[in-house]
Amino acid sequence: MGKDRALTQSRQKGRLEKILAELERASEFDQLQSVSEQLRDYFEIDHLVYHWVSSSGQQYGFGTYSDDWVQRYVEKDYLRVDPVIQGCYQRFHPVDWKRLDWTGKAARAFQAEAQGFGVGNQGYSVPIRGPNGQFALFTVSHNCDDATWAEFTEKNRRELILIAHFFNHAALELEPDRAPEQAQALSPREVDAMTFLAMGYSRAQVAETLSISEHTLRVYIESARFKLGAVNTTHAVARALSRGLIVI
Amino acid sequence: MGKDRALTQSRQKGRLEKILAELERASEFDQLQSVSEQLRDYFEIDHLVYHWVSSSGQQYGFGTYSDDWVQRYVEKDYLRVDPVIQGCYQRFHPVDWKRLDWTGKAARAFQAEAQGFGVGNQGYSVPIRGPNGQFALFTVSHNCDDATWAEFTEKNRRELILIAHFFNHAALELEPDRAPEQAQALSPREVDAMTFLAMGYSRAQVAETLSISEHTLRVYIESARFKLGAVNTTHAVARALSRGLIVI
DNA sequence: CGCGGCCTCGCCATTTCTGGGGAGAAAAGA
DNA sequence: TCTTTTCTCCCCAGAAATGGCGAGGCCGCG
């Protein structure tokens, strides 16, 4: 490796270090926005976005997408169409957009419109999950051919994972009102009840499975519903699931 | 900074690089075990453990804890007592053991017993969550005073986060992947129906919201139920949620 | 052009869930 | 020790969901 190149690399590393340090100190939206732009420039890519979906479905984020696109995305509720969301929601690990399912009419229409707003044809997204069903996605996207993109992601994978986490940390600082929504834990019996209900058991079946009377079971369901702020059983099960209190 | 120290640092970095590369290639338990030990030596700490809890409650892991301790932990179902698990389960971010709640009889007894098995008084754990309630914890632990530990975690935070992710990646390779039964897509109306039901709306409310008759709504619910292989509405909503077909 | 999928609407009877009460025992924590 | 939480059981009536029957129009695909 030539001396110059090594020097450049070292200088580059230093630049990234500086941005990361700023990211770690960041506590306001504008700072995160600025860091996003610096990182975009550093990586020499088209876009870089952090997108957060709370357990209640609210979403927000920051990054380099145009305001038009963000607004349209929220307006049109593209959360429910976006293959990146759909795909990453079921995945553990960072994923290249190429590996997602872009067949399907809605997906292709979405893709076309996204590219109209300057979103790249290539992308790489890092999913992060929270304890109560929160879901965040850190995405870099770019317009280039497959080989170039593969090289980029291979080279910067580690940095991207780290940045995703730092963004996530910063985003949580932004959001102060998590506490009230902090999941009140369910009692073991309540967890049992919710779990079997989520598995499709009727109340009678759950009661029999747990060897308790159906009346008793009802008390659990009701108290779980109360704790979860749910208006009916289905709602309670949905909340318990998306807050990670039960697993099926 | 002296030249020698810089050299040492660089050499150290190279050593870590080598271990990480091995970790990234690892695909078998023994390799991961070996990497754990190398990392322990590299960081000069007492223990380093990766611990995985699957959605069905099964747990496994690898690391440098003694077999005796691991066996005891599993036997005694310490998962339900361990403040590290309890604490990290509700947290987004890596956490220092000092910040956990060690009051409580069971917790203190657990702590005492753990230290008897050589687990350090200091620890730092990185939680990682999966799409279906999986929960993994990467932990480093050591015996030292607070200041030394604070310095260590501050210095190696980034590396630890990365290692946690690489371990996680490798652990997933280990796991005989349960075939993620191809989620059959729901029609848009079915998605609407499931979504509102998951939000706690009654049938009548959903029908009104979607401006369709309640009977039509029933057809959607039934076809969604059929597609999802669910026996009732709650079951269908639960499946739609955990397959990521709907988001609330 | 037929086939399948999607969207829309109706009636019946039966089962299941929900909301409002009340009450005692056991276990865990402060 | 005392308090709180958890677990267990019981009543009733009204609301909601389910299962099974049928019907027509619209769209895209091969």
Automatic annotation (TrEMBL), chains A, B:
PROSITE patterns: HTH_LUXR_2. InterPro entries: Sig_transdc_resp-reg_C-effctor, TF_LuxR_autoind-bd_dom, TF_LuxR_autoind-bd_dom_sf, Tscrpt_reg_LuxR_C, WH-like_DNA-bd_sf. GO terms for biological process: regulation of DNA-templated transcription. Keywords: DNA-binding, Transcription, Transcription regulation. The keyword Transcription regulation applies. Residues 179-244 form the HTH luxR-type domain. The keyword DNA-binding applies. One of its GO terms (molecular function) is DNA binding. PANTHER family: DNA-BINDING TRANSCRIPTIONAL ACTIVATOR DEVR_DOSR. This is LuxR family transcriptional regulator.
